[in-house]
From TrEMBL:
Keywords: Membrane, Signal-anchor, Transmembrane, Transmembrane helix. This is Trichome birefringence-like N-terminal domain-containing protein. It comes from Thlaspi arvense. One of its GO terms (cellular component) is membrane. The chain crosses the membrane at residues 38-57.
Length: 424
């Protein structure tokens, strides 16, 4: 076992380091006066200590080893479009398995519930014109040292967080420090890197209320107020360094959209004298409001990074989720096999345009980025649980919305790491 100095020695070293850091001129005078008293070995040790405490004190978020390690990581051309490319074979497979990651939720543990094929694990995303590095948990944790990252959105946002949690757990075992009563909101902490990873549940990002019937049971019809944000997640935004926002699949139901006392219109409703709007138009209204609320957040950190993750496509075939639809494919699609005019692509474009429009008009310095997974994941009909999700309350129904863990959703964290590096 490696030996350690006594507590008195360590305490003296920390105390002197603090003095050096706070008063470099005093440090220099002390060295000139007392250098002759020190042995050569101690002189060398002292010089090294001073160099690292004074020179590297500038960045409290990254340790020396992190800085050296990160400098060796491959750089990505900032002009490269990470989201334009194709899936290629990769014999290495996933960084983790459903056995090695203990935090995989039961509904995403596809192999536990009978999935037999493994081929869908042996693909990686290759952008045209550059290479997207394989996810490196050590490098990622170095980038986010001392920071708080929150995934804000619905169950697919949670799916992404759970994927990232498994990837990072190959480097450091996190502590599960909070879950609410419904297991909607979770907080994990990586003590060695002082990094907090959390998820905040919200169906629509903005304020919402479900209508109830005479028995006070939910009807599945919602009222949204784009003039108000959903405070359940927004109240924690001032403490957040990196926010990944996304919400999509709850929008495909009857929804009345309001702006304060004004009713703007409704989605999937047949109410008389009511303006009918498409889901795409609904996304425009909600996401425009979302980005406006974030930009006007006075208590938020000036260097808050907000990442929009675009809509993640479902792959139901031969029916919808409640009419026998399934997703039984075992290989990716090529670009020629996907519909670039699909509703998902239209919604994806609406999301991005709202972000671009709001940020161009707003002078306040905030940092935004797009994690554009829509087209990437349209090519992965093979990555969903399908019938292998173990839901005893919904037997006979297939899950073609969420993603198996491990699975192609792990690529989202490779994109996320590339985005964070550009802001570092």
């Amino acid at each position: 076992m490696r030996g350690y100095a006594s507590w008195d020695d360590r305490h003296a070293t920390m105390k002197s380091s603090s003095i050096f850091r706070e008063n470099p001129e005093k440090t220099e005078r002390w060295m000139v006066t007392n250098m002759w008293r020190l042995t050569p070995l101690l002189v060398s040790s002292l010089c090294i200590t001073i160099f690292f405490t004074v020179v590297y004190h500038q960045n409290p978020f990254k340790s020396i080893s992190d800085r050296n390690f990160l400098s060796l990581q491959p750089q990505i051309d900032p002009e490269c479009d990470l989201f334009k490319g194709h899936w290629v074979r990769d014999k290495r497979g996933s960084l983790y398995t459903n056995s090695s990651c203990s935090t995989i939720p039961d509904s995403k543990n596809c192999f536990k519930h009978g999935r037999q094929d493994r081929d869908f694990l042996f693909w990686r995303w290759k952008p045209d014109g550059c290479d997207l590095p394989r996810f490196n948990p050590k490098a990622f944790l170095g980038l986010v040292r001392g920071k708080k990252m929150n995934f804000i959105g619905d169950s697919v946002a949670r799916n992404h967080m759970e994927s990232l949690l498994c990837l990072l757990s190959t480097e450091e075992t996190p502590k599960d420090i909070y879950t609410d009563g419904e297991d909607r909101n979770r907080i994990w902490y990586f003590p060695n890197h002082d990094f907090t990873l959390s998820t905040s549940w919200t169906k629509f990002l903005v304020s919402e209320q479900e209508r109830v019937d005479g028995n006070k049971k939910g009807t599945g019809v919602f009222d949204l107020d784009i003039g108000k944000i959903d405070e359940k997640w927004f109240k924690d935004l001032p403490n957040t360094d990196i926010a990944i926002v996304s919400a999509a699949h709850w929008f495909f139901r009857p929804i009345f959209i309001h702006r304060g006392d004004e009713t703007v219109g409704c989605i999937y409703c047949n109410s008389p004298n009511m303006t009918q709007i498409t889901p795409e138009e609904g996304f425009k209204l909600v996401y425009s409001a979302l980005f406006k609320h974030i930009l006007e957040c006075e208590k938020c950190k000036e260097d808050l990074v907000t990442v929009l993750r675009t809509i993640s496509p479902a792959h139901f075939e031969n029916g919808t989720w409640d009419t026998g639809g399934a997703c039984s494919r075992t290989n990716p699609f090529g670009e020629s096999q996907i519909d670039l005019q699909s509703n998902e692509m239209k919604i994806r474009t609406a999301q991005i345009k709202q972000l671009e429009g709001v940020t161009k008009r707003h002078k306040k310095a905030k940092q935004f980025a797009v994690l554009d997974v829509t087209k990437v994941m349209l090519m992965r009909p093979d990555g969903h649980p399908n019938g292998n999700w173990g839901n005893k309350w919904m037997k006979g129904y297939n899950d073609c919305v969420h993603w198996c863990l491990p699975g192609p959703v792990d690529a989202w964290s490779e994109f996320l790491m590339a985005i964070i590096r550009r802001f570092s």
